[in-house]
Amino acid sequence: MKNLIPILLAVVVLSSGCDQPSNCGDLVSHEGYDYSTVQIGEQCWFSENCRYLPSVSHLSEGSETDPYYYVYDDQGTDVTAAKSTVNYETYGVLYNWPAVMTEGICPSGWHIPSDEEFTQLTDFLGGESVAGGKMKDDVQWNGSNSSGWTGLPGGYRYSGGFGSNGDGGYWWSASESGSYSWKRLLSSYDDDVYRNGNGRYNGFSARCVRD
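-> structure tokens emitted (211 positions)
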């Protein structure tokens, strides 16, 4: 029994140091910000977009292989200035795919969802033709947000600028599709969830799901 005591103490210490909340619905702290979480079926999700911003890129700069970070309509390179904008506060950060795959974007115990995990979410909510209405925020656009996922129309970044803020929300998955990567799109025009492969230089929002 004496030999078990150090092992038990180590388990307690490791458990208390984990970022993962004891219950889904608790706040989880990461990089100085407390994210809200929500249980949807067997999954626990962030109910707001990732805000991780180690640097900010000018909208004219991008890559399919190196990480780039954008804030909608911000055309500077100053992180403090970008974080002071309404778009950052409301919608978080737009990431190219290499940026969304960096280790720092999600806290310990969480990760960017795979294509399959997004499908698990939409299947639980009734399928792609209706899940969007349940995932969309009911204040900024025309969703019911009955799931609590609180999807916002944060728009996207493409090689020529920014677009669709107020009309569409775009979220990367961690899954690849040939030279593209899978994303999910919510639109103001219907209750569908659209699944498409996109070029990795695009800037989309990100969510974390618990391991």
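DSSP finds six helices and 13 strands in the chain.
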